[in-house]
Amino acid sequence: MGAIEGILTGFEVAFSWEGILFVLLGVFVGTFIGMLPGLGPISAIAIMIPITYGMDPTLALVMMAGVYYGAVFGGSTSSILLNAPGISGTVASSFDGYPMAQQGKAGKALAIAAISSFAGGTISVVLLMIFAPMLASVAISFGPPAYFALMLLGLTAIASLSEGSTIKALISAVVGFMIATIGIDPQTGTGRFTFGSMNLLDGIDFLVIALGLFAIAEVCYLVMSRHKSATGSGKEIGSLKLSKDDVKEMSGPVGRQSLLGFILGILPGAGATIASFISYIAEKRIAKKPEEFGKGSVKGLAAPEASNNAATSGAFVPLLSLGIPGSGTTAVMLGAFLVLGLQPGPMLMGDRPEVFWGIIASMYIGNIFLLVLNLPLIPYIARILTIPRPLLISLVLMFSLIGVYAISFSVFDLYLLLAFGVIGFLMRMFAFPAPPFILAFILGGMMEQSFRQSMTISNGSISIMFENNISLVLIILSVLSFAFPIAKSIWSKKKAS
């Protein structure tokens, strides 16, 4: 069966009444779960596996795919309204989404997030349909040196995430690196910085840190400012309408970062989280007014939203074409394939075209459903901001505690959550930016692992970083990314004098 016949078969599955029903069910459940801090797509898909046992495999996987990208779509809501990221891939959305909500533009922020997510998801599905078989071979050409160079490129942008002092941003990043080293060394099996505690052997979960630094820190701030007027900033929902200037402003970032997010999504291990951070940083670097980022910038919200949804579709490339999961969520999806009696990989497209193309085609309908479901509900969702402050604080605290406990069932993680909440509050009080901390924590583990794998392959020779064309290009880009702001600053000073 050729590609055209396969695509038509996929649309036949997606547009059947069963296909439409299960896509709708999947995106609805995914959106709802994504809004709850801590309950991400991994938990949702894991719950779905026993429920779908005995179902038609194609429809079951279409529904689970809907849960996946629906959760990423819905995760932005709690990030924007409460500064409590529903999933790790929407942390970057809170950088500008939450300030917009505080400025009384919650409706507009949710509308930008919904439209950017829809555009990013749709663009990536088109790319997935056209380039899926070819891109699978590109994904596996990324070896440890290339991954190290990619992480290095991401780290060169730490200064871009600082809102004031670059020194404070670097200190924040160093602490993030240090936290990333806690746990068992994956190469030697020895414990690092565990202080004899069994609870730290597996390291610290990303969600504990993200919810602590953002959600619990926000709770602390709300408690400390409880004497301020309850009708202050952040209570107004504002209009949902986007002006022509808004549409014009977000169109460029959405187009660029959808493409970047899709490319990063197909790389095993990168995923929506790294894609959203790198897109945010890249957009800030090229913006004419980078000082607006972090203060409610339209571009700053549109870029990560388009990117994380594009990366979600991109993550299906290595899974469907090679049988390699590119993230934790697609690893659970791989398990779902096996439970349903299917083996994803090179043979899937030829042997079961209705599954391969059915999942891809269903994403078109899923993205439309997400937009149709979310846009009319924005006025009602945004009313979360009108909840009385004591009740809002209680809800954020409760969902954060439940979200963390549901992952590990560990009381120790709850103590860690509160500890990082206090750290996040102190960082906010003393103007230490949290994003470099999060970025260093995310990239630090992968960067160390890639570097050590590279050294093992080359018997300790650093030259391996320059022998691979991909890593060489990425290292050159890293140097340029690091040097460009310095050269720009020197040039500006000379011009001013």
What class do helices, strands and sheet pairing give? mainly alpha
Bin the strand percentage. Answer: under 5%
> Helix and strand succession?
HHHHHHHHEEHHHHHHHHHHHHH
User: How widely separated are the two ends?
Assistant: 68 Å
Count of discrete structural domains: 1
Q: What is the overall silhouette? A: globular
List keywords for this structure.
single chain; 497 residues; mainly alpha; two-stranded antiparallel ribbon
Can you offer a commentary on this structure?
Keywords: Membrane, Transmembrane, Transmembrane helix. This protein is mainly alpha-helical and 497 residues long. The chain has one domain (3-225, 243-496). Helices cover 73% and strands 1% of the residues. It has a two-stranded antiparallel ribbon. The N and C termini lie far apart (68 Å).
What's this entry about, in short?
This protein has 497 residues and is mostly helical. The protein is 73% helix and 1% strand. It contains 21 helices and two strands.
Topology:
Blueprint: H1 3-14, H2 17-35, H3 41-52, H4 57-82, H5 94-102, H6 106-140, H7 144-155, H8 166-180, E1 183-184, E2 191-192, H9 206-224, H10 244-265, H11 271-286, H12 298-314, H13 316-322, H14 328-339, H15 348-351, H16 353-381, H17 389-408, H18 411-429, H19 434-457, H20 464-467, H21 469-496
Antiparallel strand pairs: 1-2
Helix pairs in contact: 1-16, 2-4, 2-16, 3-4, 3-14, 4-5, 4-6, 4-12, 4-14, 4-16, 5-6, 6-10, 6-12, 6-13, 6-16, 7-19, 7-21, 8-19, 9-17, 9-18, 9-19, 10-11, 10-12, 11-12, 17-18
Transmembrane segments: 20-47, 59-82, 109-131, 138-161, 167-184, 204-224, 259-282, 319-343, 355-378, 390-408, 414-443, 464-487
Organism: Gracilibacillus salitolerans
Protein name: Tripartite tricarboxylate transporter permease
